[in-house]
Amino acid sequence: MTSSATTVFAAHLLAWYDRHARDLPWRAPPGEPPTDPYRVWLSEVMLQQTTVAAVKPYFRAFTERWPSVEALAAAPEEEVMAAWAGLGYYSRARNLVKAARAVAERGGFPDTETGLRELPGLGAYTAAAVAAIAFGRRAVVVDANVERVVARLFAISEPLPAARKAIRTKTAAITPDDRAGDFAQGLMDLGATICTSRDPKCLLCPLAGDCAARIAGDPARFPIKPPKKVKPLRKGMAWWIERETPEGAMVWLVRRPGKGMLGGMRALPDDGWSARGDGIGGEPGEPLGLVRHGFTHFDLELSVVRGAAPLGEGEWWRIDRLDEAGLPTLYAKAARLALD
DNA sequence: CACTCGTGGAA
DNA sequence: TTTCCAAGAGT
After folding, report:
1. Which nucleotide lies at the shortest CA–C1' distance from A22?
2. 3-class SS at A293?
3. HEC states along chain A?
4. Using the CB atom, is residue A58 less than 7 Å from strand B?
5. Could you tell me the distance in Å between the CA of residue A52 and the C1' of nucleotide C6?
6. How far is the CA of A235 from the C1' of B10 (A)?
7. Which chain B positions come under 7 Å from a protein C-beta?
8. Which residue(s) pair with A245 in the sheet?
9. A303 sits within 7 Å of strand B by its CB
10. Which nucleotide does the CA of A295 lie closest to, via C1'?
11. This prediction's pTM
12. Domains, chain A
């Protein structure tokens, strides 16, 4: 799907991007040489299903602590997991370490989309994005922003997810041979700031004159989304187990199994609410309170109770340094509740 | 294709 | 307060 000519869409978009590109820590200004592939890759993985605002502090912390892919490859996995705590989708952190070690082993990042695609954690989107942004390759980059912009641009009336095939074809048709990375970032910036999911700012849009959905009069209607299903409510229990020592108060922490919910992360011992048979069990103790936490596909009501003795395999952790334990948000909430 | 896998900010 | 959803990947 190569178009030898730069499309009118690409010309309009690139002209807009040159003036309005967002200033992001992992991004080189338009026209300047591409940034370090490590920084591009790291930011793209962090940005998967995650907002720019949430990523910024983590990106700074990671690049300061591990300035290169070699440094990250040499890091203990548990330290990386703890540093990722709070960012969500923890399989990304596990795959990040695997990919870093593979890259260090082979002496650098693959510089093609196909090569990048073989690294763990790099799917169709991320491989294309890194190939285009870090290596100047022509790649068809489709994320949720591009999906929305292109669905509107061509007024694609087929509902998702079936529409993705047509959206990809259209995106390929308007992707230029040169500056594919800037083009992709331009489409994403446009989607993030102008062609937003709700209340698109068509008056400010550089593609308004080309947009079939706007001409049709109801751009926000696209893309057509399938109805969403109801989130079930699960209930669970977790134990807050303290011990006094000469060094201060300690709490008993376990590490969750490598796969599944919050996989590989430190946690409070629980009763297996995540429904994978990994609960440790124990006797209900003095109730400390209730934590409500929303996951992607269910809500959890976690009852936090005091426990007397350690449950399962774990470690005593100094409560005054609990912020260094790398607890995912669910358990950070539980700890806050127990300590209040 | 359908489902799992987090989180926090915006409206 | 609830709902929506964001630079998706893996199975």
Report:
1. C7
2. strand
3. CCCCCCCHHHHHHHHHHHHHCCCCCCCCCCCCCCCCHHHHHHHHHHCCCCCHHHHHHHHHHHHHHCCCHHHHHHCCHHHHHHHHCCCCCCHHHHHHHHHHHHHHHHCCCCCCHHHHHCCCCCCHHHHHHHHHHHHCCCCCCCCHHHHHHHHHHCCCCCCCCCCHHHHHHHHHHHCCCCCHHHHHHHHHHHHHHCCCCCCCCHHHCCCHHHCHHHHHCCHHHCCCCCCCCCCCEEEEEEEEEEEEECCEEEEEEEECCCCCCCCCCEECCECCCCCCCCCCCCCCCCEEEEEEEECCCCEEEEEEEEECCCCCCCEEEEHHHHHHCCCCHHHHHHHHHHHC
4. no
5. 8
6. 28
7. 1-9, 11
8. A248
9. no
10. B6
11. 0.95
12. 233-339 (3.90.79.10)
Q: What is the pLDDT of residues A246-295, one digit of tens each?
A: 999 999 999 999 999 999 999 999 988 876 544 566 667 789 999 999 99
pLDDT tens for each residue of A129-163:
999 999 999 999 999 999 999 999 999 999 999 99
What DSSP string describes A198-253? SS--GGG-TTGGG-HHHHHT-GGG-S--PPPPPPPEEEEEEEEEEEEETTEEEEEE
Q: Is A44 a catalytic residue?
A: yes
Identify the helix (H) or strand (E) that includes residue A314: none
With beta carbons less than 8 A apart as the criterion, state whether A265 and A87 touch.
Answer: no
Amino acid present at A262: L
Helix (H/G/I), strand (E/B), else coil: A110 = coil
pLDDT at A65 over 60: yes
